[in-house]
């Protein structure tokens, strides 16, 4: 067996364990929390009073206008200067959540805006309140529009979690870096890490296609009924 293949086999368990213990939980938690934050931010921008809408706009402007790596450094290395100490994983979770929240808010805002105004009027005409119309009529239709770009955001997040290595989170990429420091085989180890990220992204891309197909059937069903 070639030395490079033996090294990849030996390092694979450590990389997979790091992925399962840190990369996958960080991705899932960040996306779920970021999606919730994005929904609130989108609703604030569309429907909230001017002061709240301006705060939401400012938040999105700052996050989208600065690099994710800088945001992580500010949270993990900068906040201690202000007396706020965070462990690496919570700091990464906060950073990724804020980043996903800003980007997903724009997707959700555009999806809600794409729903025709007549859908609101139809909901009001049968006695729904604003919240009922939003929950039962607008969001289900907006979801079908938002799923593809949100899925892409989720796939990108899987790869972006490698930036957490810069603030000492022992996720997949930092584990590869630690093995490299011992074996002095950066090419082999980094290719192996890249292949694992590729596998995760491929699985998620397959799930995305299935989800989009399901929503497409749902949309066709709605159009047939109308």
From TrEMBL:
Q: Where is the ABC transmembrane type-1 domain?
A: 20-208
Q: Which CDD domains match?
A: TM_PBP2
Query: Where do transmembrane segments lie in this chain?
Result: 20-46, 58-79, 187-207
Q: What UniProt keywords apply to this chain's record, in alphabetical order?
A: Amino-acid transport, Cell membrane, Membrane, Transmembrane, Transmembrane helix, Transport
Membrane topology listed for this record: Multi-pass membrane protein
**In the UniProt record, which is one GO cellular component term?**
ATP-binding cassette (ABC) transporter complex
Q: Name one GO biological process term.
A: amino acid transport
Annotated SUPFAM superfamilies: MetI-like
Q: What is its main location?
A: membrane
Question: Could you tell me one molecular function GO term of this UniProt entry?
Answer: transmembrane transporter activity
Source taxon at top rank = Bacteria
**What family does the Swiss-Prot or TrEMBL record give for this protein?**
Belongs to the binding-protein-dependent transport system permease family. HisMQ subfamily.
PANTHER family named among the record's database cross-references:
L-CYSTINE TRANSPORT SYSTEM PERMEASE PROTEIN TCYL, MEMBRANE COMPONENT OF AMINO ACID ABC TRANSPORTER
**What protein is this chain from?**
Cysteine ABC transporter permease
The species this protein was found in? Xaviernesmea rhizosphaerae
Question: According to the entry, what is the taxonomic lineage of the organism?
Answer: Bacteria, Pseudomonadati, Pseudomonadota, Alphaproteobacteria, Hyphomicrobiales
């Amino acid at each position: 067996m070639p030395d490079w293949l033996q090294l990849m086999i030996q390092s694979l368990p450590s990389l997979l364990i790091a992925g399962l213990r840190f990369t996958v939980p960080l991705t899932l938690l960040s996306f779920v929390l970021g999606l919730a934050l994005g929904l609130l931010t989108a609703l604030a921008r569309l429907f909230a009073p001017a002061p709240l809408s301006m705060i939401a706009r400012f938040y999105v402007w700052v996050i989208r206008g600065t690099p994710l790596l800088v945001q992580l450094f500010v949270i993990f290395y900068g906040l201690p200067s202000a007396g706020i100490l965070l462990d690496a994983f919570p700091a990464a979770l906060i950073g990724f959540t804020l980043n996903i929240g800003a980007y997903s808010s724009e997707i959700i805002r555009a999806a809600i805006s794409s729903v025709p105004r007549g859908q609101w009027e139809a909901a009001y005409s049968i006695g729904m309140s604003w919240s009922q119309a939003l929950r039962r009529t607008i969001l289900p239709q907006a979801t079908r529009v938002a799923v593809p770009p949100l899925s892409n955001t989720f796939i990108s997040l899987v790869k972006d979690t490698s930036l957490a290595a810069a603030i000492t989170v022992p996720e997949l990429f930092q584990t590869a870096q630690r093995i490299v420091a011992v074996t002095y085989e950066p090419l082999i180890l980094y290719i192996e890490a890249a292949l694992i990220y590729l596998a995760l992204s491929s699985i998620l891309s397959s799930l995305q296609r299935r989800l989009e197909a399901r929503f497409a059937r749902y949309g066709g069903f709605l159009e047939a009924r109308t």
